[in-house]
Write a structure and sequence with these properties.
By secondary structure, this protein is of the alpha+beta class. About 30% of the residues lie in helices and about 15% in strands. It folds into three domains: about 375 residues, no CATH class; about 110 residues, Jelly Rolls (Sandwich); about 45 residues, no CATH class. The protein contains 16 helices and 15 strands. The strands form three sheets. Strands 6, 8, 9, 11, 12 and 14 form a six-stranded mixed sheet that branches. The protein has a five-stranded mixed sheet with strand order 1-2-3-5-4. Strands 7-15-10-13 form a four-stranded antiparallel sheet, with no helix packed on it.
């Protein structure tokens, strides 16, 4: 898989398709700059419209942009990855809409009418389309069977998505409506596609019937890597994405939208890996590591990298397992349940996920994401030129389920133990990871963090690394912009007492530890193993005496 346009067209991406969130205040509104969704969001924040108005106008922006009030009609065409979140937002908040808004919205959500139908080869889908008028599909018919090739391809990609999800991966089938055919309508949209939730099923959980709307031409949509062409690539990933939504509704039709969207976007990659259309969204995630994993807007589409991580580390079936738990729990609790058989949890795994996200683009070392070389690189919150360093604070404090990356260079510092003195605000739950980067490769490590947000660890022999990336991470869901203080403290080899110097106190300290029931070496047990034998005994005391008073060799460096 070769992502030829990622680096060269980053600026085009930012200006043309995506205007990612610039701050947490923009959460959920990170759509193309100047688009209708952004204009509606701004009016809501300014107090010009009510929440009900916002929900209603967003629905119009997706399904009927020509009906929007003139002040919300953007000068550029809106290109929304998926309209499903806006449909579900309207359905979930139906009672707050006015009676007039409800009447109009009901018309938008009603099934469209079309002048032609086509049943897929596997007799699984009914594709509805027009051949004339505003909603007409491209009429090219190379096989001369009187069915537009555009329509036939939608049916083919829907069939293949169905077979893969249900026959190969074992997902529950979508709940059926009045017949055995699932309905797809090809119409003019401001989105790639929309899945519309309809009637609650008869299961013990919140399953729903649904139907799908797919764009009728994909004219003017972003480019992709599909060797068969951009339109075919867009058709493939839209069928995969929207039918995954239909499959999700077999489990929980009221699940959190971030999880619905990031997994549906992930399955574009799983089902049709040659397309890479979803790479357009990656910058909206990687550029903002301090933004919560569960944030809306374009960020949740770029967050498809989280289910990609789960898939590549634990196997594709873990994603189905999460959805099975979603029948009875929310998404984060369900992720915990799915990770439990691996001896993991979201809190334990999230720091490693953050470390994987460092090794992308030019930093890719081939040891993590299969396609990591084609992903963007995360920015550093700070770069520190030398170690140790005095206390620093975050420039972009992380939200819940997010992190910072701090790069530091050991330089010509004296070697020893680098104590990590981290103190995060205690209203959230922290984890702390680091990546040591050297000529022989990289090493991932973590330091314990107590309930007050303070670390209790460090890095022994830190000069063996050319650079070290520190990753303070919040592993709880709540609160934004969480500040911390972070410093590093140098402890020389042999300093068992933690005084900051190697001296007679350390001899006394080891005697007390070995023979009088005193405490073990502070900071790290290896600081008492002066001869590197692997154990602490009388020989280490003798070794230290020789070093301090007889010109002996300094305490050794344990590799």
């Amino acid at each position: 898989m070769i992502k030829t346009f990622l680096l060269s067209s980053c600026l085009l991406l930012m200006a043309w398709l995506i205007s990612p969130m610039l701050s947490n205040a923009d959460s959920g509104s990170g759509f193309k700059f100047g688009g209708s969704i952004s204009l509606i969001e701004k009016a809501f924040k300014d107090g010009s419209i009510t929440r009900a108005d916002k929900i209603f106008y967003n629905l119009q922006a997706v399904l009927a942009p020509n009906d929007l009030p003139a002040n919300f009609r953007a000068p550029i065409t809106e290109l929304i990855p998926c309209g499903t979140p806006y449909v579900m937002e309207a359905q979930n908040n139906w009672k707050i809409l006015s009676s007039d808004q409800q009447a109009i919205a009901a018309n938008y959500l009603a099934r469209p009418t079309s002048d032609a139908e086509y049943i897929s080869s596997d007799s699984l889908f009914m594709v509805h389309y027009d051949t004339t008028g505003y909603e007409a599909v491209p009429l090219e018919d190379l096989n001369l069977n009187s069915i537009p090739d555009y329509v036939e391809r939608i049916a083919i990609y829907a069939d293949s998505s169905y077979r893969y999800y249900h026959q190969d991966l074992g997902y529950l089938p979508h709940p059926f409506d009045a017949d055995s055919l699932y309905d797809i309508y090809l119409i003019k949209l401001s989105a790639y596609g929309v899945t519309v939730r309809e009637t609650q099923g008869d299961s013990a959980w919140n399953d729903y019937t649904s139907y799908i709307q797919v764009h009728n031409s994909f004219f003017g949509f972003p480019s992709n890597d599909d060797p068969e062409g951009d339109v075919i690539g867009a058709q493939k990933v839209t069928c995969a994405h929207e039918y995954y939504h239909a499959t999700q509704l077999a489990y929980d039709g009221t699940e959190e939208v971030w999880w619905m969207e990031c997994t549906a976007t992930c399955f574009e990659e799983v089902t049709f890996p040659e397309v890479n259309d979803n790479y357009w969204y990656l910058n909206s995630f990687f550029d903002y590591p301090d933004t919560s994993l569960i944030t809306g807007g374009y960020h949740m589409y770029g967050a498809f990298i989280w289910p990609i991580y789960l898939w590549e580390k634990y196997g594709i079936n873990i994603l189905r397992s999460v959805w099975e738990y979603c029948r009875y729990s929310n998404s984060l609790a369900s992720i915990d349940s799915a990770l439990l058989p691996f001896g993991k949890s979201l809190k334990l795994d999230f720091p490693e996920f953050a470390s994987w996200n460092y090794f992308t683009g030019s930093r890719n070392d081939g040891g993590r994401y299969d396609s990591g070389a084609y992903y963007p690189t995360v920015p550093f919150d700070r770069v520190v030129s030398s170690l140790p360093f005095t206390a620093i604070n975050a420039l972009n404090p992380p939200d819940g389920l997010s992190c910072n990356y701090i790069m530091a260079y050991p330089g010509g510092a004296q070697n020893g133990y680098l104590k990590l003195d981290f103190d995060g605000i205690n209203s959230v739950e922290w984890a702390f990871a680091y990546i040591g980067l050297g000529q022989s490769g990289s090493i991932f490590g973590t330091c314990p963090v107590d309930i007050l947000g303070r670390t209790t660890g460090g890095i022994y022999n830190f000069l063996k690394y050319d650079s070290i990336v520190f990753i303070p991470t919040i592993v709880s869901q709540w609160l934004d912009d969480n500040q911390y203080s972070f410093a590093t403290i140098f402890i020389p080899f042999g300093d068992a007492s933690g005084s900051g110097a190697t001296n007679i106190q350390d001899i006394t300290y080891l005697i007390n530890y070995l023979y009088k029931g005193g405490p073990p070496p502070l900071n790290d047990m290896k600081l008492g193993d002066n001869n590197c034998s692997g154990i602490i005994n009388i020989q280490d005391i003798t070794y230290l005496i020789n070093f301090l008073y007889k010109g002996g060799v300094s305490p050794c460096v344990i590799q």
